[in-house]
Amino acid sequence: MEMGFKWDFAYEILPQMLLATLNTIIAAGVGYAIALVVGLFFLLGQRTPYKIINVINREIVEFIRSTPLLIQLFFVYFVLPQFGIKLSAWLCGMITIGLHFGTYLSEVYRGALEGVSKTQWEACRALNFSTVYTYRRIVLPQAFPIAIPGMGNYLVGIFKDTPLLSTIGVAELFHAATAVGGYNYRYLEPYTMVGVIFLILSVPAAMWVRKLERRVNVAQGKIKQ
Amino acid sequence: MSYFAFLAEHGTTLLLGTVTTIKVLVCSIILYVIISMIFGLMRLSKNPIVQGTATVYIEFFRGTSLLVQLFWAYYVLPFFGISLEAFTAGVAALGLNFGAYGAEIVRGGILAVPKGQWEAAHALNFSPTKRIKRIIIPQIFPIILPPAANLTVELLKATALVALVTVVDLTFEAKQINSITWLSAQCFGTALLIYYFMARFALVPFLRWLEVLAAKKVGRGKA
Fold first, then answer.
1. Any CB–CB contact under 8 A between A205 and chain B?
2. Is B24 among the domain residues?
3. Does residue B104 fall inside a structural domain?
4. Would you call A192 an interface residue with chain B, using a CB distance cutoff of 8 Å?
5. Disulfide-capable partner of A190 in A73, A140, A181, B80 (CB 3.0 to 4.6 Å)?
6. pTM for this entry
7. Are A78 and B178 inside 8 Å of each other by CB?
8. What's the complex ipTM?
9. B178 touches chain A (CB under 8 A)
10. Distance of alpha carbon A175 from alpha carbon B65, whole angstroms
11. Does a structural domain hold residue B223?
12. For chain A, which domains are there?
């Protein structure tokens, strides 16, 4: 086994890795889009006036949130075919990520809605606005900025969890690195490059989210500029 | 094959895996708590080198994926002549990764202690070490425990990843049984339930108890 980082080998596999990075970004984007929508449904389940739906919704969210994403992936990937539902690894991965992070996003939405002060609702009531109108014109415009940092955090979170998809055979960055490493019997360069690519993409994203968070806090008057 | 027959045949294997999962969890909790304390304090240091080291460490481990770090520790370190056992590599990667998140929580907790406490300790001529150790640290626990509890539940879930570097934990056993019997619903379903019960009925109540205890210690909780 040759010691040290081999730059020419790293250069040789670079195009392959960059191509796989594209897949990772697509996976994160699609997973995130699904999670955003799923989060809305869980939020709806939480806010319906029917107690029984609230309870069932809460238990489902609790269950998904306290079990590992990895086993959820395996469960969806291996169990659905036994019930005659044959989905590709990509689809399984996207669905699972969407469900898993949807539960987290529903919490973000909930926090944002609760962040809008009660007096806003009372004022709308006094002005005889309908519920739909109140949501659309008064509450949501105020809740959305509060939700943005949390939503951004989970985008970065999903991005960093995409390597798990490689375990069910989705051809994203980490999968490509493992394949290249296995083929050449050298894991040093591929795995290091994966780490560097993740750093390059996620550190600026995280910094941007933190900046947004600060701006929202300033706008809310929580901290001074 | 009924579910009970499945449990009778493979239940012990899954339980043995669960024991390993608990071992990984306990070891990495100890490691991550120590790391977050150290780096949380370093982040607040006035010395730019100390503070810079902590910032680089935190950004690095939060910026790269846990799975990548895990594989790096297990498959790449041997290229540098360091061969870790799977268990050690797993615990190290988990501890270092979650330590980075924990350090930010500790930093936030220390900053949240009212300024007057620092000033009072200063006025009483406490040494800097005594100030931190006797005045500030005891007060940060009620502040940091709720977010730290969330992080610890995340850690329990993350321990599943060590199965991918051949640690024989619950996930590994479930995968193994699946590949022998193809009873996927049973083995992954059982594994999911075990993780759920561990989180919901053991870890979370314990952490809530700690939160109440910490609040009581500083005289904030209900006596």
1. no
2. yes
3. yes
4. yes
5. A181
6. 0.90
7. yes
8. 0.90
9. yes
10. 13
11. no
12. 7-219 (1.10.3720.10)
